[in-house]
Design goal:
Elements (H helix, E strand, L loop, with lengths): L1 H31 L2 E13 L12 E8 L4 E7 L6 E4 L2 E4 L6 H112 L2 H59 L2 H21 L3 E10 L2 H17 L3 E6 L4 E13 L1 H13 L1 H15 L4
Parallel strand pairs: 6-7
Antiparallel strand pairs: 1-2, 1-8, 2-3, 3-4, 4-5, 6-8
Length: about 400
């Protein structure tokens, strides 16, 4: 029994070790096996003195890449294969295979048949439901009509019995209500007459008092009222001007505060740029970025160019600049100028490879460098005013 358990554990351990070895092998292959790429561009000779020329006519461009002995490969081309194609061994991943016309027609006919059967079932179900609803409605109407007729008969009987008693009660109270109403009307008329006489006496007193006042007093009081109105208008204008001035002063204060904060930020950035940590971070970052660019640049670059600007002086200046750049590069570039016409022709071929391991190492060096992290932290505090 113990031997069987040990044998099972042994097989499980061997399987786990094999899986771990395969996983490590895949990681090593991804990191150290380079991705090879090549590109080509061909532009036929085009003279732009002819205005009817189409620039895209005759241009051919191709880009290909492969990894691990063409285990994974991809290609895109203009104008033949505009869609990006990706293959793993003999299986095409992108673009997906298009179905044939016969299969598409069969699927279309099948969908139509399914839709027809579904609509027929829905119509049958709706008819059955409609019939059930109509039967239920008829039963409900019959029951409701019978119940309503019975209720109406009962109500009529109760009304006949109650009407005789109500008549006797109303005759006994009619005399009392008439006496109360007549007394209330007489008291209200007396109150209205007294109010009218008092209001009339007050109006006559005020009229005679106003006539007794001299005209000079009236003019004096009118003059004072006008002065008071003008003073109120002036105070309103002064208050509006004060509010306007206060708003402008607040905006000016805000502007001064923003300018001072911007100046403080500029001073802080200048101090960071003058520090030793920034110098160390700059040297490290530039070194690693140039290394990544060198890994990404093509190993082979062949170009055969014919060009002309239409102006002999401009063509000569461009030719001299290109020859100076060509002297510092390790690529083979053939230049042929045309000093008489505006023309272009190009035949370019590029080949290169890139290894993920070296790019990943350089990126990790940049990310985990202490000086670079300090500089970024200081810039974050200066710009956002917060600490991580």
């Amino acid at each position: 029994m113990l031997g069987i358990i040990l044998a099972i554990l042994k097989t499980i351990g061997i399987i786990l070790l094999i899986l771990l070895a395969v996983f490590l092998l895949l990681i090593i292959l991804v990191l150290f096996v380079p991705i090879r790429y090549e590109a080509s561009l061909y532009v036929p000779e085009k003279r732009f003195s002819n205005k009817e020329i189409d620039f895209l006519d005759g241009i051919c461009a191709v880009f290909r890449f492969n990894w691990f002995l063409h285990f994974i490969r991809g290609e895109v081309a203009y104008p033949d294969k505009k869609d990006f194609t990706l293959k793993v061994l003999f299986f095409r991943i992108l673009p997906k295979k298009e179905k044939s016309k016969v299969a598409l027609e069969g699927e279309h006919n099948g969908k139509k048949a399914n839709n027809i059967t579904r609509k027929a079932k829905e119509n049958l179900d709706s008819q059955e439901n409609h019939e059930i609803v109509n039967n239920d409605f008829d039963d409900f109407v019959d029951n409701d009509y019978s119940n309503s007729s019975e209720d109406q008969e009962n109500k009529e009987k109760t009304l006949d019995s109650n009407s005789y008693g109500e008549k006797e009660e109303t005759t006994s109270f009619e005399g009392i209500n008439k006496e109360k109403e007549s007394s209330e009307v007489y008291s209200n008329s007396k109150e209205e007459k007294s109010d009218f006489s008092n209001n009339k006496a007050q109006e006559e007193d005020t009229f005679y008092n106003d006539e007794d006042k001299p005209r000079q007093d009236r003019g004096f009081f009118a003059f004072i009222a006008k002065i008071k109105e003008k003073i109120m208008r002036l105070t309103d204008k002064i208050s509006k001007f004060k509010d306007f001035f206060d708003g402008k002063t607040n905006s000016i204060k805000k502007l001064i505060y923003t300018i001072s904060s911007v100046c403080d930020k500029i001073k802080a950035i200048y101090n960071v740029l003058e520090s030793k940590t920034f110098d160390k971070a700059y040297t490290r970052a530039t070194k690693e970025i140039f290394f990544i660019a060198r890994c990404l640049l093509p190993r082979k670059f062949d170009a055969d160019l014919l060009f002309g600007t239409g102006d002999p002086a401009d063509t000569a200046n461009l030719l001299s600049a290109l020859y100076i750049l060509n002297s510092f590069s390790r690529y083979s570039i053939t230049l042929e100028p045309d000093f008489n016409d505006v023309v272009i022709r190009a035949d370019i071929k590029i080949k290169g490879k890139l290894t993920i391991f070296f790019i990943l190492i350089s990126a990790c060096k940049i990310y985990f460098d202490k000086n670079i992290r300090k500089v970024l932290h200081r810039f974050d505090i200066i710009m956002h005013g917060r600490k991580k």
